[in-house]
Amino acid sequence: QVQLVESGGGLVQAGGSLRLSCAASGRTFSSYVMGWFRQAPGKERELVAAIGWGGISTNYADSVKGRFTISRDSAKNTVYLQMNSLKPTDTAVYYCAARPTTTLRYEYWGRGTQVTVSS
Fold this sequence. Notes:
Elements: E1 3-7, E2 10-13, E3 18-25, E4 32-39, E5 46-51, E6 58-60, E7 68-73, E8 78-83, E9 92-100, E10 108-109, E11 113-118
Parallel strand pairs: 2-11
Antiparallel strand pairs: 1-3, 3-8, 4-5, 4-9, 5-6, 7-8, 9-10, 9-11
């Protein structure tokens, strides 16, 4: 079992930055692939970024490449999403999720944190 709690959301002007954090509990945190998803009103949830268990392998949605950076600190059981050059289109609820390396389905989810970017 993995419990995930996001923090760091808020209201920011376009061009600004935010850093989201996801605190995980569970002794096997380091063996999970971690992802950040987002869901805007009226839209489907989308994968924004993911990071492998070793913290080296990452992938990003095209819409955030060059602006967002995902990282993990296994000693702190925490995953981060640094978001720079934010746009109004980044406005969404952001969710942290985890999946075992042996599956493609994310099994554990946080409750989400709201990010609002004003123009």
